[in-house]
Every structure is written in structure tokens, then in C-alpha cells.
Amino acid sequence: MKNYIRDNRSERGMTQDDLAEVLGVSRQTIISLEKGRYNPSLELAFKLAGVFGCRIEDLFDPEEE
Amino acid sequence: MKNYIRDNRSERGMTQDDLAEVLGVSRQTIISLEKGRYNPSLELAFKLAGVFGCRIEDLFDPEEE
DNA sequence: GGGTAAAGTAAAGTAAGTTTTACGTAAAGG
DNA sequence: CCTTTACGTAAAACTTACTTTACTTTACCC
């Protein structure tokens, strides 16, 4: 499942470490997420949408990939 | 995390078995989901929104519980 | 009462998300 | 050069989503 986490993160000038910390997850989780290595839990998806001020549907595209 | 899966399901006259089958998961998964025993994967959340023709944010409330 | 459909519980097992630790690389600055 | 910052990889350990199987309960209907 494709996602736009990296785009949103760098648009805001955040490092992977920053994002991991504000989300309360490890940096490894961010790296793997951005690389599309797995699909996050719904809870993490909601946190991401919260941080970026958008909806889950704006961050993830279930159609692609 | 609170959800409105049971409401949406029974509004449509579906049984837990029906929903499980159309989602491609086990009935146990539906039971546990409706009981709020765990948070689903994002992929399952997208499938649910697809079946019910709504957005994830309409099915799950990350604030409550 | 017996039969069946829908929902529930419980436990053990498998699959996948997430963490932790440790090391590698490339770019930027002093 | 050397250090620091940001990003990457890899593997083992842990946690939790999800499956499978088997059995229970409730209600409705004949």
C-alpha cells in the first residue's frame, strides 16, 4: 500500500527521528513505513493523520502497489 | 478505539459470517473487532470502509476508549 | 422438545507489526 | 581529516493481529 508519509514529513522539515518521537514509535518504524515495507496499525495511521493535520485517506492509497 | 462496525453491519442486514467472507477474514476477527478487543490493520480498515461505502474516520473513533 | 441460525467464548498456533541494538554510508562543516 | 547529522541495512526479540478448531448460548420456528 502506497503512502505519502515521506512527502508530508519533509514538507514540514522534520527528520525521521523527529517524526518517530512525536508519534511515540521507533525510528525503524518510520524508515520501514516510508519504504513501504509493511502496513501500519490503524492506531498509527490515525496518529500520523493527526500530526500532519489530514485524513488517513490523504496519507495512504490502498489501491496502489 | 471505538468503532461502528456492528451498527453498519446490522443496518445492512449482514451476519458476522457474511462480513467476514466479503472481507476475506475469519469470523473470529469480526467478533473481536466488534467487541473492540484490538485495533485492526490499516488494510482491514480500508476494506471495511470499502464494504460500507464510507471513510475510515466514519467507522473508527480514535478518541474514545 | 428438537433443529437450526447467529452470536459468543476460549485456547493454541501462525503471521506480521514494532522495538532494540549495532553497524554502514554519504553529505556538510570546522 | 574528523565529527556530526540524517538516512539506511540487518537480525533477533517481542507484541499483537489474525486463524483455526471446538464448544456454548440464545432465540426463533416447526
Automatic annotation (TrEMBL), chains A, B:
Name the InterPro entries for this protein: Cro/C1-type_HTH, Lambda_DNA-bd_dom_sf
Q: Which Gene3D superfamilies match?
A: lambda repressor-like DNA-binding domains
What sequence ranges are listed for the domain HTH cro/C1-type? 5-59
Cross-referenced SUPFAM superfamilies: lambda repressor-like DNA-binding domains
Q: Which domain of life is it from?
A: Bacteria
Q: Name one GO molecular function term.
A: DNA binding
Question: Which controlled-vocabulary keywords does the entry list?
Answer: DNA-binding
Full protein name: Transcriptional regulator
From which organism does this entry originate?
Answer: Bhargavaea beijingensis
